[in-house]
Amino acid sequence: MDNVLIVAGKEVRDDLRSRWTVGLSVVFIALALSIIYFGGAAAGQAGFTSFGAILASLTTLAAFVIPLMGLLIAYDTVVGEREAGTLLLLLSYPLAPSELLSGKLLGHSVTLAVAIVAGFGLACGISQIFTPTARSIAVWVDLGGFMLSAALLGASFAGIGCLISVLTREKARAAGLALVAWFLLVILFDLVLLFILVASGGDAIERAVFPYLLLLNPVDVFRLVNLVGLKGAGNTFFLSMTAGQAYPRLVLWAAAAGWVLLPFSLALVAFRKQEI
Predict the structure, then answer these.
(1) pTM above 0.85, yes or no
(2) pLDDT digits over 7-61, tens only?
(3) What's the rounded Cα separation, in Å, for the pair 158 and 111?
(4) In the chain, what is the greatest distance between 2 CA atoms, to the nearest angstrom?
(5) Which domain holds residue 68?
(6) Strand, helix or coil for residue 263
(7) Contact 157/70 with Cβ under 8 angstroms?
(8) How many CB atoms neighbour CB 51 within 10 A?
(9) Residue pLDDT, tens place only, 191-211
(10) 243 in the Ramachandran plot: left (φ > 0), alpha (ψ -120 to 50) or beta?
(11) What's the structural domain count of the chain?
């Protein structure tokens, strides 16, 4: 465990020194503040609106930005060390492959969590200053759950980035595959499911199966965790097609945690079988 924490600490320091990480975090904070303030512009309203509308807007932002951050921060986790010639050196120490990979994923996940808390915490804190009606324990519980689910989303895509990094031999190829993974999971997956649902006419079987197909995508699991309980605050899409009551929140949280463990486990198995 000590080795894992040492590796994680090094990764956090390296991530925080990275211009990419700092730049993405600044953009992330700016977008969060902008969406909170201008989220109601389409309805002719600018300024801080209800907490439910704010949470729905932030969920939409997070579903696009956090997966990209997770992939970009982790795609060179292993392949970068391999290209730099430091992977063999690291494994020559009393450090198991599982400890190395676990420490790197933990470090990246901590960095993402810091960016998430900084961005969403600052944005929501400012919104609460200007919306006194949203100051309640229930709101803070919802906000805490939102940031936890966002951190799990970031960790899941950091795990996917680690898996890509293990399976590739060139950083450029790993970066390309990371962008492809983002496009497939964040954009194309929902479009394909929506096309199938519309083309089939949404029969009873389709509508019974559809809610569970969304669990196959960590982005949709994140959306469901945060949108199912918002009753009309920007979640009409999911309520109309997923029958939000089809699964309890415990199932959604278990799915979110499972999406952190699954890509990491696959990356670990592949890393152990490789000839470094």
Answers:
(1) yes
(2) 899 888 888 887 777 777 777 778 777 777 665 544 445 555 666 677 777 888 8
(3) 10
(4) 62
(5) 2-273
(6) helix
(7) yes
(8) 23
(9) 888 787 777 666 666 667 777
(10) left
(11) 1
